[in-house]
DNA sequence: CATGAATGAGTTTTCATTCAT
DNA sequence: GATGAATGAAAACTCATTCAT
């Protein structure tokens, strides 16, 4: 029945460990299926320790979700002007680098749908500007294309990117080919 | 409220009402966040009434999920040979007709990922056969296309189809254009 | 959804059937483990029918228990004077003829212990009068013998009598031999 | 009552208290009639505390039952050869020392009948070997005697031993006298 | 800094009983 | 005489959170 501070223990370390384990489990099982007991077991500390560093289960999850969203916002902050190819690339690179946070923010968070709606809007804006450059887009509803693109990105991220079967670069290129690249078609047509 | 039979009460009606409410709530909040108390409140009966008609929360949810999956299997049963356009159409029509069940089977069920994997496989098979017909596919990884298509379908279903902003027919056509139709591009190119 | 009186149905018949099934199930599973739903299922009627004939689960069980106890009382009513052999015989014959009621009254009822205490008292009284006739009893505590006899009777009833491995006659004789019969011993001794 | 640790609280103490109370109540009311709420009320803690120390109501009961059975097995383990007098003595001593566990294992457990059947078999084996030494046994069915003895032991245990009206030593001697001891009879006969 | 011990507030599920037909 | 439909009351169990050490 030893109590009190562990030898070599260190607050910041415990906090980081808890955070890491929380991300792992949240990203896999989702918010409701993740129990505090799971997290602390994985971090090898007790439940009260969790509350030493985080206000509540909810606030931690919210923090993680917001971190994801914040990062996402930062990506598109500086230069207002992006080409769709850059948008796709930047997204995939970010997702590839933060797979677990991405799973949380894109699939597990209750307002992941908002995040996606925002991205879709972004796509729309960009495509609106670029539509003349892609013959393939002619006659197509940009809203539909944007939503479709969002769907493609989220699924490819989940199944091929995060699983490391493909790289962000590869997937960017493939997506661009699918959605906007007439090379093949044009070549053939000629 | 007193015990015993309600005036004008009717078992089949109650069961259907409960089922309907359950589908509504399951499809919105998911399995874990849906409480029996939510369902019975919506159906204006008490908790034991739920157990009069359903074995448990889990078995009801499983039934709904399986109904969705069964329907899906039936779609592709008869003629073994489908063209990708038919596959997409049939999916979207089915989803449009069963929006809530679709939400459950495609987004809320624990094994929705399996359903999608199966669909992706289907896409791959069909595309493998048809690849020569679509110049756009040249040089592209069919697996990636299939996954991407799955993503597009699931997102368009969720955001445009189920919300009745677009019809299954419209979305099928748009998807075909995006993924396989060179018309516009070719026309322009000429 | 047919409702109302069954063709050929008959109140007394239903009541008897319910009673019979109740006895069967109560005797096997005990009061708390027996559900009204078990009883009515066995009798092939619905739950409200049970309440048509019996006030409640408890009152039916109490009735059965009291019937057992009443019968038991009747056995020893008339001639005040019994020999221990007669007491044992009469008990075993009654138990053999009413195996299920016996199981209820002797093993399942909450106050079966009272019944047994009363029987033990009876044994004591009778033995007190007869003790001179049985040399084996000399020096032994009649209370202990009476309790022991009660235990023997209840166990033999449960394991050999009710299972029809032995008859009441056989067991009476054997019990008398064990507890009071010196024949063998004396014969040998001489 | 507030949340969190009680002043001076101690886990092992709480667990033991819960166990003790559980044994008391299980032994009196049986498994089904014992509610967790009874146990925790008796131990002056809340229901979750119960689950802090025990997996479930069932597993606790099973543990207690198995403890009883294990002890019982241990009694007869070492020397394979026992005389019936020793068997009876050892049983009664064990029962006297563990009255509540005995009530659970011998009367309340769902498989107490198995325990008794096993004991009866033991009696049979031992008596088979010793039958020549007891003239009283001549002409009697050893199975009946064994069952009868089991009944005597269980009843005497319940009514005289556990209630501390008689000691294990006294009851052993009395049982031996009743079942196997011709002294008195013989003495008289001579 | 960290733990051991405990609890409030739910959640699913069961069962005897009772109305309306 | 009998059923279909419903419910009140309680049971076991879970989980995020909190106090005392």
TrEMBL record, chains A, B, C, D:
<dbReference type="GO" id="GO:0003677">
    <property type="term" value="F:DNA binding"/>
</dbReference>
<dbReference type="InterPro" id="IPR050624">
    <property type="entry name" value="HTH-type_Tx_Regulator"/>
</dbReference>
<keyword id="KW-0238">DNA-binding</keyword>
<dbReference type="InterPro" id="IPR001647">
    <property type="entry name" value="HTH_TetR"/>
</dbReference>
<dbReference type="Pfam" id="PF00440">
    <property type="entry name" value="TetR_N"/>
</dbReference>
<keyword id="KW-0678">Repressor</keyword>
<feature type="DNA-binding region" description="H-T-H motif">
    <location>
        <begin position="35"/>
        <end position="54"/>
    </location>
</feature>
<feature type="domain" description="HTH tetR-type">
    <location>
        <begin position="12"/>
        <end position="72"/>
    </location>
</feature>
<protein>
    <submittedName>
        <fullName>TetR/AcrR family transcriptional regulator</fullName>
    </submittedName>
</protein>
<dbReference type="InterPro" id="IPR009057">
    <property type="entry name" value="Homeodomain-like_sf"/>
</dbReference>
